[in-house]
Automatic annotation (TrEMBL):
HAMAP family: Salvage_MtnA (MF_01678). It comes from Siccirubricoccus soli. It holds the Pfam family IF-2B. Belongs to the EIF-2B alpha/beta/delta subunits family. MtnA subfamily. Catalyzes the interconversion of methylthioribose-1-phosphate (MTR-1-P) into methylthioribulose-1-phosphate (MTRu-1-P). The gene is mtnA. This is Methylthioribose-1-phosphate isomerase.
Length: 361
């Protein structure tokens, strides 16, 4: 993706050849700060604090975290410790475990002297794979937008949270078809759910779409149902942090309510995902997917930029009131029109997913 004409990925190795660069997503859209990560503790903290976030990107950054950890300690104990520390940073997105399992499988049987170089190579392969996967997701989602635009002359999409290039290594998942539609001249407009409590929609998705020149408007999270009732939404496309083998979808809190409203209004509700987001071991998403509970302060406070350019956090809830902050919810497969993957589109079901991934265990 390009920012002010300059091509970027969301994670890359610095010119020094070993340290790892990311955008500090807690500062966007107000400041474009690029962080330099140099060790295991820094990577774990960047993931925990959501300086990097978004399921596929968390996986790729964690893979580089293993490489950085091995520079300090290439022993088998060092490898296992890195995998354990990184694996505990965030519980819901399965891409984190997928990437760490892949790193361990590649590195475990190597002699320690060969591990560092192999870890960087594997992390790069994961990042390259994610970028290409997301490009293909866009190709498979694009016909849905093309079809609507052919009938209506334009297409209005609603999306929740940030499933754009900032949440992946490049292109994004839910936003990838939108970028590709825009690039081929389809008049596409996006309703961007602000996505409280952390406002990934208002801050990150709006930033991305603005930089790409895609027409969009930020809406309060509660506005989607009203817009659907009035024919203002042609299609909902969201990303996901974990999809069960039966097609249940965990995504940012509030996604389930959008799916309910979409069902009631006959609006197609599509979910875009890479292969690394499928959890083949889980069948019942509501019962089995761990939902991250984050700090109450994310709900009781808001962060933004003041008129004179300072980034400030203020309290918006009544003094002394506690808050609950479940960060994800699960949308049952029955509410999902279909899944958009790098291998094509399918029904949100075990049959649909297995037809696309016959090799899955
Ligand atoms: C392609 S990203 C899909 C999801 O990871 C995204 O929509 C989301 O819910 C991210 O949650 P976050 O808590 O910001 O990491």
């Amino acid at each position: 993706m390009k920012i002010d004409g300059k091509p970027y990925r969301s994670v890359w190795v610095d010119e020094d050849g070993w340290s790892v660069r990311i955008f500090d997503q807690t500062k966007l859209p107000w400041q474009l700060d690029i962080l330099r990560l140099t060790g295991l503790a820094e990577v774990a903290q960047a993931i925990r604090s959501m300086q990097v976030r978004g399921a596929p990107l968390i996986g790729a950054v964690a893979a580089y975290g293993v490489a950085l950890a091995l520079r300090a300690d290439p022993s088998t104990e060092g490898l296992e410790r890195a995998v354990a520390v990184l694996g505990e940073t965030r519980p819901t997105a399965i891409n984190l475990r997928w990437a760490l399992d892949r790193m361990r499988a590649r590195l475990h049987n190597l002699p320690p002297t060969e591990r560092v170089a192999a870890a960087y190579a594997e992390a790069l392969a994961i990042a390259d794979d994610d970028a290409e996967t997301c490009r293909r997701i866009g190709q498979h989602g694009l016909p849905l937008l093309r079809e609507i635009a052919a009938k209506k002359g334009q297409v209005k999409v609603l999306t929740h949270c940030n499933a754009g290039w900032l949440a992946t290594v490049d292109y994004g998942t839910a936003l990838s078809p939108i970028y590709q539609a825009h690039d081929e001249g389809i008049p596409v407009e996006v309703w961007v759910d602000e996505t409280r409590p952390r406002n990934q929609g208002a801050a990150l998705t709006a930033f991305e779409l603005g930089k790409h020149g895609v027409k969009h408007a930020v809406i309060a999270d509660n506005a989607g149902g009203h817009l659907m009732q009035h024919g203002e939404v042609d299609i909902v496309i969201v990303g996901t942090d974990r999809v069960t083998r039966t097609g249940d979808v965990a995504n940012k809190i509030g996604t389930y309510l959008k799916a309910l409203a979409a069902k009631d209004n006959g609006v197609p509700f599509w979910v875009a995902l890479p292969h690394s987001t499928i959890d083949w071991r889980v069948a019942d998403g509501v019962a089995e997917i761990p939902i991250e509970e984050r700090a109450a302060a994310e709900v009781t406070e808001l962060t933004g930029r003041t008129a004179d350019g300072r980034i400030e956090t203020i309290r918006v809830a009544a003094e002394g009131s506690p808050a609950a902050n479940p960060a994800f919810d699960v949308t049952p497969a029955r509410l999902v029109t279909g899944l958009i993957t790098e291998r094509g589109r399918c029904e949100a079901s075990e049959t649909g997913l297995r037809a696309l991934y016959p090799e899955a265990g």
